[in-house]
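step 3/5: co-fold with cytidine-5'-monophosphate
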Amino acid sequence: MTSAHSDPAPVTVRVPAKVNLELLVGPLRDDGFHTLSTVYQAVNLHDDVTVAVNDEWACSVVGPYADVVPTDSNNLAVRAARLLADETAIDTPVHVTINKSIPVAGGMAGGSADAAAALVACDRLWSLGLTTEELEEYAAELGSDVPFLIRGGTAMGSGRGERLAPVLARGSYHWVFAISDIGLSTPDVYAECDRLRGKAVVPEPRPNSELMSALRTGDPHVLAPQLSNDLQDAAISLRPELGSLLESGMEFGALGGVVSGSGPTVAFLVEDVEAAIDLTVALTATGAAREVRKAVGPVHGAHVIPARVD
Ligand code: C5P
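step 4/5: write tokens
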């Protein structure tokens, strides 16, 4: 790594995972994406992404999921950093280090989160001074849910998910995520959703006003029945064991359960932290999920944190 005196200090950004409280899938567009109406919530499962000035573009991944994340130019965080450099005529390569704890390929936007973090980190490292709106525009070029990981909180997404609008949400919600190791690719789940729909005419998705009212109460009992995901049937059709996992979580006392994004992670909403601990223990004991983690939302989007001292 370069150690020239004038190099700016490395920048570390912490970024959350997301869960979709509602994911309504509309018609397939000509560009291969589907029109969505979704409500995202950021939860406190985090990755930390550090960028440091370097002689060449480079990437390393550390943490429990390190061995399943590419470190070449397919890495979304590297793509994000290079996109921002190209767009702003920056000629200073960086070494991107991802401390990964968001489940990989789980429907929790882990790769998108790293891309969002890299944009925010490089903006600071290169002193670009971009606004959140400008960063969200670059984010949209990298993936449908990357802009939300910059914004965080609870927000509505339309278009292919990248057009954000604020949502008034009170309180904090306790979640338990059952992370399974059965692979599910996002494009395959959307394709299965289309297949199951056959020739049915699919209306433009409209946000559910009862979900919006529920979020204003701050009461998980009111929110739980409003959780929904149009990709859930498709995910269960491809991986039937996800249906049993949902049933187990409900039998063990969850208030509501939903496949997260395109899966295979299943998100359970519970009453409070004690209920989260109980459900985590019960689901872990079944062995039906590779890992069970509790989390709280909403939390902030990608933000700079003090340098790690490891
Ligand atoms: O933009 P993102 O990386 O999330 O998209 C991954 C894939 O998911 C797309 O290539 C597409 O197959 C599918 N997708 C979709 N409609 C959306 C978002 C994603 O069909 N609105």
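step 5/5: annotate
Residues 11-167 form a domain with the Ribosomal Protein S5; domain 2 fold (CATH 3.30.230.10).
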